[in-house]
Design goal:
Blueprint (H helix, E strand, L loop, with lengths): L3 E11 L1 H6 L3 E9 L6 E2 L5 E6 L11 E9 L2 E10 L3 E4 L8 E5 L3 E6 L5 E7 L9 E9 L1
Parallel strand pairs: 3-11
Antiparallel strand pairs: 1-2, 1-11, 2-6, 4-9, 5-6, 5-10, 6-7, 8-9, 10-11
Length: 144
């Protein structure tokens, strides 16, 4: 079954305290319209996804991300970074789902991961050669 292909936006937003006092944080999130995916998987089973790439010579953990979304109003979002005045920066690793990957054919990877809690999920590939980081494609699915 093919996953939903969605256009995502990357947005950064500063907290009000940063503007008022100069102390605070800036969060960067991925946003996808709609609060759920039409591609639904069952909970409590092992999952496998085939992800196509230009080739399969690179470690997939360096550029393929499997994330869990937070649903807010009519959109799904995932924090991918945060910069704080005193604590420095961090990446949104708490919303990443661990997976195992192996080569599949000549230009794909087979991702496998353990059962996940019900919710909204997405897979995206970061491209170090990409020039436009404001727009990305995310393949989405729901676990219900």
């Amino acid at each position: 079954m093919a996953l939903d292909k969605e256009n995502a936006k990357i947005k950064s937003k500063a907290g009000a305290s940063l503007y008022l006092t100069g102390i605070g944080s800036v969060k960067t999130r991925i946003h996808v319209e709609g609060n759920t995916s039409s591609c639904v998987a069952k909970p409590d089973c092992a999952y496998r996804l085939v992800v196509r790439s230009a080739n399969n010579d690179t470690d997939p953990n360096t550029f393929i991300q499997l994330i869990q979304f937070e649903v807010k109003k009519n959109e799904r979002r995932c924090e991918i970074g945060k910069i704080n005045t005193f604590k420095g920066s961090s990446s949104g690793t708490e919303q990443l789902i661990e997976y195992k990957a192996k080569r599949y054919g000549e230009s794909s990877y087979l991702l496998s991961f353990d059962p996940v809690v019900p919710g909204e999920y997405g897979v995206f590939m970061s491209n170090p050669d990409a020039r436009d980081e404001k727009r990305m494609i995310i393949y989405c699915f729901s676990v219900k």
